[in-house]
Amino acid sequence: APEPPPERITIEGAMSVQELASLLRHSEAEIIKILFFKGIAATINQTLEVETIELVANELGITVETASHSAEAAKVTEMLESSDLDHLQRRPPVVTIMGHVDHGKTSLLDAIRNAKVAQGEAGGITQHIGAYHVDVEQNGEKHQIVFLDTPGHEAFTAMRARGARVTDIAVLVVAADDGVQPQTIEAISHAKAAKVPIIVAINKIDKESAQPDRVKQELTEFGLVPEEWGGETIMVPVSALQQQNLDTLLEMILLVAEVEDLYANPDRPAKGTVIEAHLDRARGPVATLLVQNGTLRVGDILVAGACFGKVRAMIDDRGQRVETASPSFAVEVLGLAEVPAAGDEFEVFSDEKSARAIAEERAAAQRQSRLAQAATARRVSLTSLS
Ligand code: GTP
Ligand code: MG
């Protein structure tokens, strides 16, 4: 009997219809038919881009993981340079909380911060990526953890598509009364593709209908086997609502961070990634920047993506103005001339003139590639008409 189609495939990049057909274990004719109904006229030897491959696979209910980002990611993640090596200091872990809708991501973060973010949000839904700094005392030592709160994973996807690697550890929240859901699976594949270690927080264990062992069982199907069952994944039962077991979760995060070798050189101009950005009517462009190497200071001249800026003010997660932001810290920055995109890299320059020139050069390149894309789109629609 022929092998059944796979549930997921991992691809490196573009490939031909023929190659895709054999990978998906469907006939070439079927692939071509699916493309046809999507308005794409294709032949057997035609090369399909990653996005098109995803389109076809999704139609067949097959998940696509791209390994191609890793090379790009490695390039972008090269936040450290050889000149930094003699000046490395430990930096706090940057942790992303992921999970299915309503499984308690915001509540968990909220409980950890001991603040009341979830209640204050419009409709209880996270509207933007927030970055929060948490102080943890352990064995008399002070540690810090930086948390990113992701909305639905869209921003994470956008950042990963651009090759940005901002997270050191992923905390996967799974509600004990609801189990593994589509976005749980999506989160696992994001974290795995980015090679980020996963810690599972089995939440809502206070509920009568909680079945933590069932959640563990379900997770094993996705390659996450709990340590107590002989696997390698740390799973912590918690209740965000009743603030249960949060200390253990934080302890586990620090434990994983310890073996991850997280270092940066604070004694150099800052470099990092734009986590979020928007245009504020009163304050102009506002960007949340995650510093991944160096120290960011008020007055610094920077380029974020294709945007030039001079740091006019920096505000931390508590709304306090700060003068500096060291590695792993995220701050809201005022003073950019335009709004950069989430996932853009930023870098501080010593010379304003060259910073402006770089920003302008990149903006021109972006305009160029947008024009080229539009031209390709026009050509494709003309081809499918003929
Ligand atoms: P989105 O941002 O919309 O994806 O949701 P979320 O994952 O951030 O979930 P949120 O924290 O908003 O919580 C969803 C609901 O679950 C809320 O009604 C919370 O009060 C409830 N909840 C969260 N954690 C717990 C918990 O530990 N126990 C119980 N019983 N309820 C919880
Ligand atoms: Mg939320």
Automatic annotation (TrEMBL):
<protein>
    <recommendedName>
        <fullName>Translation initiation factor IF-2</fullName>
    </recommendedName>
</protein>
<comment type="similarity">
    <text>Belongs to the TRAFAC class translation factor GTPase superfamily. Classic translation factor GTPase family. IF-2 subfamily.</text>
</comment>
<feature type="binding site">
    <location>
        <begin position="149"/>
        <end position="153"/>
    </location>
    <ligand>
        <name>GTP</name>
    </ligand>
</feature>
<feature type="binding site">
    <location>
        <begin position="203"/>
        <end position="206"/>
    </location>
    <ligand>
        <name>GTP</name>
    </ligand>
</feature>
<feature type="binding site">
    <location>
        <begin position="99"/>
        <end position="106"/>
    </location>
    <ligand>
        <name>GTP</name>
    </ligand>
</feature>
<feature type="domain" description="Tr-type G">
    <location>
        <begin position="90"/>
        <end position="263"/>
    </location>
</feature>
<comment type="function">
    <text>One of the essential components for the initiation of protein synthesis. Protects formylmethionyl-tRNA from spontaneous hydrolysis and promotes its binding to the 30S ribosomal subunits. Also involved in the hydrolysis of GTP during the formation of the 70S ribosomal complex.</text>
</comment>
